[in-house]
From TrEMBL:
Molecular function via GO: peptidyl-prolyl cis-trans isomerase activity
Keywords from the named record: Isomerase, Rotamase, Signal
Region span, Disordered: 29-68
Signal peptide stretch: 1-29
Gene3D superfamilies linked: 3.10.50.40, Porin chaperone SurA, peptide-binding domain
Protein's name in the database: Peptidylprolyl isomerase
């Protein structure tokens, strides 16, 4: 949708260049020379703003000139009234004023200013996500340094987006940009708003905006950044040359050079019922009895339906088994000989498909297993791999073209950040490329 709109608007804009030129404007003769005023001491210059050489004291700004100006009146300091020293009102800036959160300028890209609030809301979201994943709380002592590191990282990620957006604005008329903003409003509401509501744990836009305001941002600012990001991405794709067609020979050559990547080991898919010794107080007899009961339940199901194929342990495993995949029905997949218990490895290698094993003991407990499928080791044939190889080679082309376009944009870029100062073309590219490699 955005690409079609780009093409439509860009096409209309380019069409303006083919419009017929206007006829040249009619030429005009220079204005007549003003009549010369009589000269003399009493005649001021006829042209306002030019001093009369015959009367240097005659000011063009005042009819009376300097000589006709009223005499200045001076008042001695001791005679000055108290009103002159009294404050006229409260100070313009309160003495207890504090900077607005997020209002600090942390970067400039061309004519665009980046405020701390443009990235602080994302920094806070990353910290919150990290705390949830690691089930820990960032201390007050650590938080400033973590915020600084993330702030710098997010700022550097914004630079290329800002450069592309600035390049787009130089090409597209402002009224077309407004149309694009309207077009992107719908996907922003459909895709981004639900994510933000979930991230911040709020119910509606009002609560969401309140949370963002706490970080010095707003929903309007977030939508603006979304628009800039989408426009920058589409503009980059339009700047890039068309991809070259990946040939059959290129795909085959890649396949031959990476044969090991397409080899796969043998695998066994199986299901398990298990009773752990530590779950029955170490009582082996109790463990044996519990496993026998589970086995009998499975036999009853198979006896009713002898033609049953596929997994049959699922219901019993979910209800009673102690295996680590019991919640998923006891299904497991492993490579031959990969288990720590040799008796289990031997059973999985030798059992007929669909046949249930006898009771097998391991250091952890008793097991019943049943093999569902075996795959011998082999290699994915080229005919199956070529679609992914084509995609991989096309992505490699894109990465090269993207790097070239961004390098070209950065050559003449005017960039400054609070962390690095002024960044010229080579230094800017080096810094951004290094961050991407990390």
């Amino acid at each position: 949708m955005l690409r079609r709109l780009f093409n439509l608007l860009a096409g209309g804009w380019l069409a303006l260049g083919a419009a017929p030129r206007l006829a040249p404007a009619q030429s005009f003769a220079p204005p007549p020379v003003p009549a010369t005023a009589p000269s003399g001491p009493s005649s001021p210059s006829a042209v306002r703003g030019i001093q009369d050489v015959n009367d240097p004291f005659q000011s063009p700004a005042m009819p009376g000139g300097a000589a006709g100006a009223p005499t200045a009146t001076f008042v001695a300091p001791s005679q000055a009234t108290m009103a002159a020293t009294e404050p006229l009102g409260p100070p313009i800036v309160p003495t207890d004023a504090r900077p607005i959160a997020g209002s600090e300028i942390i970067g400039r890209v061309e004519d665009q200013v980046i405020l701390a609030s443009d990235v602080l809301w994302q920094v806070q979201r990353m910290i919150t996500s990290m705390e949830k994943q690691k089930n820990m709380k960032v201390s007050d002592e650590q938080r400033p340094e973590i915020e600084r590191i993330l702030l710098e990282r997010m700022l550097l990620q914004l630079i290329d987006t800002k450069l592309l957006f600035a390049d787009f604005r130089r090409t597209m008329p402002p009224e077309n940009l407004k149309q694009i903003e309207k077009t992107l409003a719908e996907p922003f509401e459909a895709s981004e708003i639900p994510k933000l509501l979930e991230t911040y744990g709020v119910k509606d836009r009002v609560q969401l905006n309140a949370v963002l305001v706490q970080h010095g941002s707003s929903l309007k600012d977030v939508q603006r950044q979304y628009t800039e990001k989408m426009v920058a991405g589409e503009w980059l794709r339009q700047r890039m040359p068309k991809l070259k067609t990946v040939t059959h020979e290129e795909m085959l050559a890649y396949y031959q050079d990476h044969l090991k990547e397409y080899e796969y080991p043998g695998s066994i898919k199986w299901e398990e019922l298990m009773v752990r010794f530590d779950r029955v107080g170490g009582d082996r007899n109790a463990a044996w009895k519990a496993l026998a009961e589970m086995g009998n339940e499975v036999w009853a199901v198979v006896a009713i339906n002898p033609s049953l194929r596929g997994p049959v342990f699922a219901n019993v495993a979910k209800a009673k088994s102690h295996g680590f995949t019991a919640a998923e029905g006891g299904i497991q997949e492993s490579t031959p000989g990969s288990l720590l218990c040799e008796d289990l490895n031997q059973a999985l290698d030798t059992l007929e498909l669909g046949r249930m094993s006898n009771c097998i003991e391991s250091p952890q407990g008793f097991h019943l297993v049943r093999v569902l499928e075996r795959k011998e080791p082999g290699r994915t044939p080229f005919t199956e791999a070529q679609a992914k190889i084509r995609e991989l080679l096309e992505n490699e082309q894109k990465e090269v073209l993207v790097a070239q376009e961004l390098k070209e944009l950065r050559k003449t870029a005017r960039v400054w950040t609070i962390f690095h100062g002024d960044l010229n073309g080579p230094r800017l590219s080096e810094l951004l490329d290094e961050k991407q490699r990390r």
